[in-house]
């Protein structure tokens, strides 16, 4: 600790943990946490600054976890755009969702809350927005299904179906890649999705 009261502590748990603290009561001694390891029944001991940090960081961890669901961040964005998008559509949205559910008897899920915010800002119901999307709309004219394309691409219909149950990152990993596509829509589609949308 220096003369201004700033203390730097290195503590090894599963890996080295470094802490900078301005509290004078945070010293290098470790204290009993009141917990035991499951296998060895050994008493778990940690520095006081670690316990204080763990006790007070819970809200931040929860906020980060909730903002990671349905994240607006995309690969390739500039760092300052990512910061802005995360603050506006991540942290701010999670905070407003928590405040909204604070004294509500019927609490909304984050997905439903986000959809209600979108509906409020666009003045359009989500179902109408989806049905107006040209990628998935059922068009009345005849469509041609071409099986052999130039390269394998992700099926649009399968991706839309996956997005109803998972976020975009997981859907991108699980959606199947195909060579077939609809000539008129100029969209990659498997045979099942082609019939679902055009027949």
Automatic annotation (TrEMBL):
Residues 6-97 form the PiggyBac transposable element-derived protein domain. InterPro entries: PGBD. PANTHER family: PIGGYBAC TRANSPOSABLE ELEMENT-DERIVED PROTEIN 4 (PTHR46599:SF3). This is PiggyBac transposable element-derived protein domain-containing protein.
């Amino acid at each position: 600790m220096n003369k201004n009261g700033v203390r730097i502590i290195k503590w090894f748990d599963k890996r080295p943990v470094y802490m900078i603290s301005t509290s004078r009561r945070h010293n290098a001694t470790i204290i009993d946490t009141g917990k035991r390891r499951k296998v060895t029944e050994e008493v778990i001991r940690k520095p006081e600054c670690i316990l204080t940090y763990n006790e007070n960081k819970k809200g931040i961890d929860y906020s980060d976890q909730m903002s990671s669901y349905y994240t607006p961040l995309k690969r390739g964005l500039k760092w300052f755009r990512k910061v802005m998008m995360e603050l506006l559509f991540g942290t701010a949205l999670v905070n407003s969702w928590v405040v909204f559910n604070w004294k509500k008897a019927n609490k909304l899920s984050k997905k439903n809350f986000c959809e209600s915010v979108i509906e409020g800002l666009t003045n359009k119901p989500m179902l109408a927005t989806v049905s107006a999307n040209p990628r998935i709309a059922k068009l009345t004219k005849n469509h041609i299904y071409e099986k052999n394309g130039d390269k394998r691409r992700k099926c649009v219909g399968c991706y839309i179906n996956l997005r109803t149950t998972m976020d975009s990152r997981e859907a991108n990993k699980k959606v199947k890649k195909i060579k077939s596509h609809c000539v008129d829509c100029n969209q990659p589609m498997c045979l099942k999705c082609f019939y679902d949308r055009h027949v």
